[in-house]
Amino acid sequence: MAAVAVAGGVPLLAACGGSGSGSGTKEGTTTGKALKKVVPAYAPLNLVEPDVASVNGSSPGFTKLPDPLVTSVKSVPGKGSEFRVMTPLWGTVPKKNNPYYTAVNKAVGATLNFDPQDGNTYQDKIGAVLAGSDIPDVMTIPGWNMQGQIRNAITAKFADLSPYLAGDAVKKYPNLANIPTGAWQYSVFGGKLRGLPMPTPVIGNAIFYRKDLIGSGAVPAGADDLLAFGKEYTAPRKKVWAFDDLWTCIQKIYGLLPDAPHYWQLENGKLVHKIETKEYREALAFARKLHDGGYVHPDAEANKDADSKIRFTSGHVVMYNDGTGGWKGMVTEQATANAKFDMQALDFFSHDGGKPVLWQDDPAGIFTFLSKKLSKARIEEFLAIADYAAAPYGTKEFMLTNYGVKGTHYTLKDGAPAYTPQGVQEAQPSTFLFLASPPTSIAYPDQPQLAKDYAAWMARQAPHVKKPLFFGMQIVEPQRYASLYTPFDDLQKDIRRGRKKVSDIDDAVNTWKKSGGEKLRAWYQDILDKNGSGN
């Protein structure tokens, strides 16, 4: 709920108004009342009926493209201005002034001059640009690139959007008002609403299994079941192992909190770190059992994570965990390579066979900012354009921004859009969608069964999702604590792989406490006292 930055190791709790004493910088507290001053109201749209409805914030599923498409923006939003826009790009940079950009610029009534940069080296580019005075009118910054002084630069260089979007003001832009509150909370930097968010799903990781390989066999519904599954499906002589490295999702099975800043929970009024909990030890002990049973592929044990997908699609492992974003790509790829390939996601369970506790992922991952140098009129013009960019699936605006011009950039085959070669070059490289994005949806008209499977799986998990203590809060730990948690990355691997004992955690936790863990606890307690929780 708050934007928490660090200057000289002192937390700057610049939330939603008010000021405090201390380091000479603005501080504040975030209460529910104060937060309403900067966060937009939520006004969900239901323009197109999904085939699988959203449950508790899960992504709705669409198996087909509506015909006709719905119009969500009634008039041309722009007023003829030019905007210089810098975004990351993973792929080949499209030519400037190509037919895709021409069509989009005409539709929005402005000229967006995109300057896409290599996403793999974007960190360095962001730092160089923000260190100078020539700031683009519009700039996209992924959360994982907000290192070093970048958060401070965001506060210094980019416009406060609160006067334009806070509360009911956002309803001037219906597609922006359709973005969930959590994503907007996470777009508060330095106490002001500065980012236009790209929302993320409520849960983004799953244990996948090869249904075609297990046939009518039962899928696990508890930790003991998972061990039994490992014994049944591991056959080293046939080069088949039941599991790849499942540690990410084993933590979910044991209800473990995520990593920083979400690795704290309140117990009897005291902050407790995940490494201090019995669940952490139980999860490690269980993962060790998978190792001792020989159920984990040797290459996974050897940290060869890059090949995990290949081990799964080739049938050398029956289960592996991964981000759900790669589900469609793998299914599409295997459609021609292996017609029997059936990849499904396992419903999460508690280790004891009960209902799981699943901690929600960060509500947004990528943000777009507007330069402070823009006039009020130009900010309002761009927000109207961003409203166009945030149009949801099933709208004319979504099709244009995501697929380009029908007949030029895509064609329809059996009701599903498919890029033409020109579309692959001009429309497929994502740039426009960074301006603002609708809530996540699972829309696969080319893979309707997958859309049903994926959306139904998420709908079943969503009722078990809880928000961690500091949900939706931009927190940067002081640099002096940056390496505190690092030893546990190696230690948990050593324990899981038989090189150290579970009890070795106790000494490591004591060292963590003495080396700054207790001070870090107090630092977070101060945030909690002044800002409240985010859940």
Automatic annotation (TrEMBL):
Signal peptide range: none
Location of this chain's protein in the cell: Cell envelope
Keywords: Signal, Transport
One Pfam family it belongs to: SBP_bac_8
Record bears the keyword Signal: yes
The keyword Transport belongs to this UniProt entry's keyword annotation: yes
Superkingdom field: Bacteria
Protein family (similarity comment): Belongs to the bacterial solute-binding protein 1 family.
Protein name: Extracellular solute-binding protein
